[in-house]
Amino acid sequence: MQGAVKCFRDYYANEFAEGMPNFLGSSGLSIIRQLQEAITRSRSTIYLFGNGGSHAICKCIEYALQAYAASREISLRVQTGIDIHKATWLKTEGSPGPSFIRVLEAEGADSRDTVLLVSGSGDSDNLCEIARYTECRSIPTLAMIGSSRGKLRELMDPSRCFCVSVEDQQISEDIIQSITYFIDQPITNIQQKEWSETVSSQAEKLRCVIQQTPVSFLAEVAEAVVDAFCRDKFVWVLGFDHPALSVCAEHTAHNLNWDAVYLIDDPPQRLISSSPTACNFSGISNDRRREVISNLAGISQARQKGVALFYCFNLGSHTLDRLLTRLVDSDIRVFLLSAEGQLTQSHAGVAVYKTELRKPQIQAGISQIVGHMLGRMIRMKLMERQKSGPSISDQSRFLIDFDLAQRRLLDGN
């Protein structure tokens, strides 16, 4: 198993590190310039629309835009779509997703505003509707999509629709999210060559970070989560220190709840809680369930021992240290993916991978990548344990070939 995980991890690192500069090196400067210009436009709103995991990416972009505006003392309004609890009201008959057009209509969006569409497949019907709507009303619109074959590309001007040339939809999601690493860059006078070199340099650093993720860390998290699922134990996926880390924690929880059991007959119950965030993009509404708060507040009384996976920035947090003590005392297995810092005290049974990254948005991006890798590993382990789904003769090939986003592609969403 560990050999297959290493092969898969290295594949993922290489695909991401090659795809990121291919996408951002050619398109990133234009995207960021258009977004920065939109921020300075008076009395305007930036609308960020995406479905599922793409909505989570939109939330990370929102935080990056807000940080950029705040550092320059610019007032900024960002609207990232739809609360899941309003989705029934906004859902269009026959459409798999909510109608974002109703949001623009309700707010009276016009040519002063900007719309950014994010889609892994580029085929989402409700995003195609937005593209047609904004074209007719001269509302500036950009799109970042994960496939050159997406329908959105046919509906938009090529100078405003940017495609990732990577077939693996989860890796394309990670590449699209990497735009958040650079939104705060001073790019007024930067030349294309310098920009491309900056992006390539960052991609190489991240290739190393991914390849240095211990195989044992990944394998142990996957095994512990599968064991929790099969034994009706709790799984917590929590983000600390920055809202983008919380969003990526919920993104991972969403993948584990829905996508990791695709094509598995009689899948086990998943008792998953994720960070309480403003994201609220998933059908399980992890971030609004009262159990999340009660689980965190009374975790030492938890009857069902389980697993906790943390995405954090600094291990030295007093809040984190107190929580770890309660978790360990409750015999809950803990895994920490952090950027920097040291635990204030040692905790038996706590596994840590520290990336040494210096920006929370980049740490969030790596957290999403790790979550994507774990989701595939957990699905494979569930198939093997449940003796369900397609036969797996080559584990590394299975992990590489079957990204979890294929469920949405096969279901036509």
Structure characterization notes:
With 413 residues, this protein is of the alpha/beta class. It folds into 2 domains: 2-208, 3-Layer(aba) Sandwich (Rossmann fold); 213-410, 3-Layer(aba) Sandwich (Rossmann fold), CATH 3.40.50.10490. The chain is 50% helix and 12% strand. The protein is built from 15 helices and 10 strands. The protein is globular. The model is unreliable at 282-303 (pLDDT under 50).
What's the tally of helices?
15
Radius of gyration over all CA atoms, rounded: 21 Å
CATH architectural arrangement of the largest domain: 3-Layer(aba) Sandwich
Mean pLDDT: 86
Q: CATH homologous superfamily name of the largest domain? A: Glucose-6-phosphate isomerase like protein, domain 1
Secondary-structure element pattern, one letter each: HEHEHHEHEHEHHHEHEHEHEEHHH
- As for the number of domains, it is 2
CATH class of the largest domain: Alpha Beta
Quote the CATH topology of the largest domain.
Rossmann fold
Going across the biggest sheet, name each strand in turn.
Answer: 2-1-3-4-5
Strand segment tally: 10
The helix fraction, in percent, is 40-55%
The low-confidence runs, each spanning 5 or more residues with pLDDT under 50, are 282-303
Main sheet summary: 5 strands, parallel
SS content category: alpha/beta
How far is the N terminus from the C terminus?
32 Å
Strand content: 5-15%
